[in-house]
Design goal:
This protein is α/β, with parallel strands linked by helices. The chain is about 50% helix and about 10% strand. It folds into two domains: about 90 residues; about 180 residues, P-loop containing nucleotide triphosphate hydrolases (Rossmann fold). The longest helix is centred in the N-terminal third of the chain and has 31 residues.
C-alpha cells in the first residue's frame, strides 16, 4: 500500500493544494477565451446593427438620440481600453517555473530531525550574511528529500528569482552539472566545451539578482567558478546548499552553516516504520 506523502508531511508545505490552486487557472482558460470571443462577437453585431440604424436615420434627416450616440462612443472607447489593458497586462517575465523536479519521493516520511533541519535551512536562506549551507548526514537519512522540499518552498515563496538543483555524485561530471543547472533555469548554451558553457552560465547568473543552487550528493570540494557559478565576492545574491556525508567537505567548502540530519530516535521509530511500511492504521500487535 502506498502512503500519501503529502498527508504525512506537514513540514513540506502544501504541494498538492498548491498544484490544485494553480491548475484551477489553467483548465477553465479555454472556456474563458470562448466566452470572451462570443461576447465580443455579440457586441460587434450590436454595434453594426445600431450604426446601420443611425445611418438610415441620418439619411432621413432625423436627429439621433443622445443616449444612442453616447452608447456608441462609450462602448467603442471602453472596448478599446479593455483590449489595450489586456495586451499590457499580458506581458509577463515568465509564465511558469519548474515544479515537479523538486517533488520528493512519495514514500518519504518526516522526522523531528528533518523538521528541525528544514527550519534551520529556511532561516539561513533569509540571512543576507549566509551564502553557503551544508547539509550533512549518512546515506539514506533523507538529505535529498529535505533539499528538494526546500526547493519547493523557495519556488512557492519566490524568495529567490530562480532555483536550480544538480546531483554531483562521487565522480562529478562538471558538464552534466552545468546542463542540469541550465535545464532548471531554462538557459540554452551556444558553446559546447565545458569552459565555454562555464562562461555563458557565469554571464547568465550574474544578471540575476538572487538565486539558489542546490548541489546534491557532494563528495568532495567543488570549484564553483569552473562550473560557472558566480559566488561570494563574484555575486552576493548567490546562495548554495549542498548535501554531503562528509564533515570535511563542509569545512573545505567553507560553509557558514552546517546542518546535521540525524537518524530518527527510538521514540519516533515505531510511527515512522508504520508510515513507511503502509501500516499506519494497523494494530500495535501487528507492528510489534
Amino acid at each position: 500500500r502506498k502512503v500519501n506523502f503529502f498527508n504525512q508531511q506537514p513540514w513540506l508545505g502544501t504541494a498538492e493544494k498548491s498544484v490544485d490552486r494553480h491548475t484551477h487557472y489553467l483548465f477553465p482558460f479555454n472556456k474563458n477565451v470562448e466566452d470572451f470571443l462570443q461576447k465580443e462577437k455579440t457586441l460587434i453585431h450590436s454595434q453594426i446593427r445600431l450604426q446601420e440604424d443611425v445611418k438610415m436615420a441620418k439619411r432621413k434627416n432625423q436627429k439621433i438620440e443622445k443616449v444612442v450616440e453616447d452608447w456608441l462612443s462609450k462602448e467603442i472607447y471602453e472596448k478599446t481600453l479593455a483590449i489595450t489593458q489586456l495586451i499590457e497586462t499580458s506581458k509577463f517575465d515568465r509564465v511558469a517555473f519548474p515544479w515537479l523536479e523538486f517533488l520528493p519521493p512519495m514514500h518519504a516520511v518526516a522526522s523531528k530531525s528533518s523538521t528541525f533541519a528544514l527550519n534551520e535551512i529556511m532561516e539561513a536562506l533569509e540571512d543576507d550574511e549566509i551564502n553557503m549551507i551544508g547539509v550533512r548526514g549518512i546515506r539514506g537519512v533523507g538529505k535529498t528529500t529535505l533539499v528538494r522540499a526546500v526547493g519547493n518552498k523557495i519556488k512557492e515563496s519566490q524568495l529567490f528569482d530562480d532555483v536550480a538543483i544538480a546531483v554531483v555524485s562521487e565522480t562529478p561530471d562538471l558538464g552534466k552539472i552545468q546542463d542540469k543547472i541550465t535545464d532548471s533555469l531554462d538557459i540554452k548554451f551556444e558553446r559546447r566545451s565545458r569552459e565555454g558553457k562555464a562562461k555563458e552560465l557565469l554571464v547568465e547568473l550574474e544578471m540575476k539578482k538572487r538565486f539558489l543552487i542546490i548541489l546534491d550528493d557532494t563528495c568532495d570540494e567543488l570549484n564553483l567558478i569552473r562550473i560557472g557559478i558566480p559566488f561570494g565576492k563574484y555575486h552576493a545574491g548567490c546562495k548554495i546548499i549542498f548535501t554531503t556525508q562528509s564533515k570535511q567537505v563542509c569545512e573545505t567548502m567553507e560553509c557558514q552553516v552546517m546542518i546535521s540530519l540525524n537518524i530518527i530516535d527510538e521514540e519516533e521509530a515505531p510511527s515512522m516504520f508504520k508510515l513507511h511500511a503502509g501500516l499506519d492504521n494497523a494494530s500495535p500487535n501487528i507492528v510489534e
